[in-house]
């Protein structure tokens, strides 16, 4: 599948068909924040949806920007963070005035059809300077099709070949969709 219908995500929000939403903060996020791996900086949350993590970042002292295509998601984040921190834009094209030190990707990559992944990886490199960090939860569905689209680690290592990978990976985190999320912190080389 090359693209999803333009209104795919907004329709999901309006119909309350949002099985990717957890009831609380993502355990992977909490582990990074509480260990200090994720420490206050200028950070972007692409495909933020209605997730609570951008507000948790703001409350922890981060200079956070939440970006999404869907009106419902942007309005929700604007109500929590302030309008200047909630951006309506397409991850494939958007470019900020200033770079970020970090990006937190929680079910954004897996929301994009694989044909768009190389372009999204280029966006991530445009948003971060050398040494910038990508905190990402690679969705493991083990299934064909999507969204969520499966992000198996061999494919992720190929997609993010220009990034520095950690020597060991933390355990994957179960998700209520019957999938798992593999937390990884990548550094833009
Ligand atoms: C699976 S949801 C995840 C939302 C949120 N990260 C969470 O964990 O609840 C994917 C989100 O990415 C957004 N999205 C999908 N394609 C996008 C694009 N090309 N540019 C910006 N946002 C996009 C959707 O509107 C949706 O809010």
Distance between the termini: 30 Å
Total of domains: 1
The helix/strand class is alpha/beta
Count the strands?
A: 8
Average of pLDDT: 97
At the fourth CATH level, what is the homologous superfamily? Vaccinia Virus protein VP39
The major pleated sheet works out as:
8 strands, mixed
Concise synopsis of the structure shown:
This protein is 28% helix and 22% strand.
General description of the model:
It is a single chain. The protein is of the alpha/beta class and 189 residues long. It has one domain (25-188): Vaccinia Virus protein VP39 (Rossmann fold), CATH 3.40.50.150. The protein is built from six helices and eight strands, in the order ααβαβαββαβαβββ. It has helices spanning 8-14, 27-35, 53-59, 71-81, 117-127, 153-159, and strands at 42-46, 63-68, 86-88, 102-106, 133-140, 163-164, 173-175, 179-188. Strands 1, 2, 3, 4, 5, 6, 7 and 8 form an eight-stranded mixed beta sheet that branches. Strand 1, helix 3 and strand 2 form a beta-alpha-beta unit. The longest helix has 11 residues, at 71-81. The chain is globular. It starts with 7 loop residues before the first helix and ends with a strand. The chain binds S-adenosylmethionine. Residues 9, 20-21, 47-49, 51, 68-70, 73, 90-92, 106-108, 111-112 line the site of S-adenosylmethionine.
